[in-house]
Amino acid sequence: MHLYLDWVLLPLLLVMMVGFLLLLRHTRLGPLVHEHIVDRPRRRLFVASVSFFLTFATVRGMVFCIVHQIPPFHYVILDGRHIHHLVFGILILLGVGYGWLCEVGNGSGSSSLLASRVMSILYGVGAALTLDEFALWLNLKDVYFVREGRSSIDAVVLFGSLLAISTWGAPLFAAIAKGKTGQTRQRSA
User: Fold this and answer.
1) Is 182 part of any domain?
2) pLDDT computed for residue 176 by the predictor
3) How far apart are the first and last CA of the chain?
4) What is the pLDDT of residue 126?
5) Tens digit of pLDDT for each residue in 119-162?
6) Residue 81 DSSP symbol
7) How far is CA 10 from the centre of its chain?
8) pLDDT computed for residue 4 by the predictor
9) How are strands ordered across the β-sheet holding 3-4?
10) Could you give the maximum distance between any two Cα atoms of the chain, in Å?
11) Residue 2: which pLDDT band, with cuts at 50, 70 and 90?
12) How far from 74 is each of 1, 5, 83, 97, CA to CA, in Å?
């Protein structure tokens, strides 16, 4: 078994994850997030959406470097087979799903804030790695930088928009669901 693997992507994502956690813990950003996004599920959505967009931008940049042969970036090759980054995304999403089934970081019971943040970050990372290669799922061939590859960008924009709308629109959606739409103002003529 021949394994040629450039271990740049996973450590880089790990450094980004730790950096984001440190920003939330040791800077004014953490208290600001808690103050302005008081609902824990919405905070998880916010953290997931930030990690989603950061991961997507990082991976797109790394693939650009690979295609243009800018070191130290290379494809992951195992026994002559290119292992696409969506494989890592699927594995991460499976791990997060299993963790949430086991109630790790989902906000129930005594679930810790750190576990909640880690699971949210991992969810965003896994979703970005997977959806960045959505066109590969759709076409069953590598169409990353050709016209058909545009569907990956579309999938990322749609899912990223869903994360953002869920984060910022949650109070509105909850009010609508409860029938508390408030009194509509009528203008006096």
Assistant:
1) no
2) 67
3) 80
4) 95
5) 999 999 999 999 888 877 877 667 676 677 777 788 888 888 88
6) E
7) 14
8) 46
9) 3-4, 76-78, 81-83
10) 80
11) very low
12) 19, 8, 11, 29
**Domains in the chain: how many in total?**
1
- Look at residue 143 and tell me if it is in a domain: yes
In this structure, the number of other CB atoms found within 10 A of the CB of residue 47 comes to 24
Q: What is the pLDDT of residues 29-50, one digit of tens each?
A: 888 888 877 788 888 888 898 8
Residue 5's pLDDT band (cuts 50, 70, 90): very low
Query: Is residue 133 one of the residues assigned to a domain?
Result: yes
Identify which of 9, 146, 152 has the alpha carbon closest to the alpha carbon of residue 76. 9
Burial 145-174 (b: 16+ CB within 10 A, else e): eeeebebbeebbeebbeebbebbeeeeeee
3-state helix, strand, coil in the chain (%, to 5): 65, 5, 30
Task: Confirm if 6 and 88 have CB atoms less than 8 A apart.
Answer: no
Q: Domain span at residue 72?
A: 3-177
Grouping H, G, I as helix, E, B as strand and the rest as coil, residue 129 is helix
E strand or H helix that includes residue 165: helix 150-177
Q: Residues 6 or more apart from 95 whose CB is under 8 A from it?
A: 122, 126
